[in-house]
Write a structure and sequence with these properties.
Largest sheet: 2 strands, parallel
Number of helices: 12
Helix content: 55-70%
Strand content: under 5%
Number of strands: 2
Number of domains: 2
Shape: elongated
Radius of gyration: 24 Å
Order of helices and strands: HHHHHHEHHHHEHH
Strand order of the largest sheet: 1-2
Length: 312
């Protein structure tokens, strides 16, 4: 399917990052926090500064903000991309195509219509990034058409923020229940000790979860697909641990706590896989970070419950 109409992934990634920050939905020590933006140099760019520079910057002074130029595929360093004597911003106001030299450069009616804009029957082939990109472009062009963009710009960005947040809540993996667990109808001390020994043995394989976060950060900062591939080893490790968690014998008194651990691992795997695909699906990758954070919090809940039972 031709996706040439989509905004660049870097633009959508910027929108997605801003969206998450605006809603405060991500907070990771040394990476995400309420004050700093992790994509900023030395983690020092304030959220307010990012919002201002992102939404208002117009490098060439042609009336189109830099992120708008990314949508229209115009040159941020050239006031008249198509060289027809009219600057890019004025061409948009005149409903002319800024990348096609005049005089035959009028935008077609359907391009400015949110009712007919890029309808696809193979919706399932669109990534989360593609869908957000389409929503971004449709909403933007619709407001440009009726002249309401400047008035509604902040609300528009916040609406996209909500979209990103909803994506990050979605879970596509399986939800594990007692039928998936090797339960033993016994809570003898020896059985609890065996479970403890086996559980600790599985956890000994674990790496430092923060490593995955830093790999993700470094890959984004350097636009490095080779760096992000390092997550493959983490995914394989988590899947191996998950397999063992499903196979060990679980005393009935530990069933619910063990299920919390198992489902948190499943979310961890799904989140890491989404992070792994950030270069081709930035929005999905960022939602993967949210899922990873949530899964680790749930894991700690399950671990504390197991400790409480074993220490009795």
């Amino acid at each position: 399917m031709d996706k040439s109409w989509l905004p660049s992934k870097k633009l959508v990634l910027s929108f997605s990052t801003l969206a998450i920050l605006l809603l405060g939905s991500v907070a990771v020590s040394e990476l995400f926090n309420k004050q700093n933006v992790y994509l900023g140099e030395n983690n020092s760019i304030k959220v307010a500064e990012l919002r201002g520079s992102f939404s208002e910057k117009d490098t060439d002074g042609d009336g189109l903000m830099d992120w708008e130029e990314s949508l229209w595929k115009t040159d941020i360093n050239n006031t008249d991309t198509d060289g027809d004597g009219t600057n890019d911003g004025d061409e948009i106001l005149q409903k002319r195509n800024p990348v096609v030299a005049g005089p035959d450069d009028l935008l077609k009616g359907e391009i400015l219509s949110d009712d007919n804009f890029f309808k696809y029957t193979d919706e399932e082939s669109l990534t989360e990034t593609d869908k957000l990109s389409r929503d971004l472009l449709v909403g933007y062009l619709s407001m440009k058409k009726n002249g309401s963009f400047e008035e509604n710009k902040t609300q528009f960005i916040q609406s996209l923020s909500q979209d990103v947040t909803e994506i990050s809540k979605e879970k596509s993996g399986k939800f594990y229940t007692s039928t998936d667990i090797n339960i033993i109808d016994s809570n003898k001390k020896s059985d609890l000790e065996t479970y403890k020994k086996n559980f600790i043995g599985i956890m000994m394989f674990s790496n430092d979860p923060s490593q995955d976060i830093f790999i993700f950060r470094d890959a984004l900062q350097n636009d490095n697909s080779k760096e992000i591939s390092k997550l493959d080893s983490s995914i394989s490790l988590y899947e191996y641990m998950m397999e063992n968690l499903l196979n060990i014998k679980v005393p009935s008194s530990l069933l619910q706590s063990h299920l919390i651990i198992v489902n948190s691992f499943d979310d961890m795997i799904e989140g890491t896989k989404k992070m792994r695909n950030v270069m081709i699906d930035p929005v999905g990758g960022l939602s993967g970070i949210n899922l990873r954070i949530a899964s680790e919090e749930v894991f700690l809940v399950g671990l504390n419950k197991i400790n409480d039972i074993l220490e009795k």
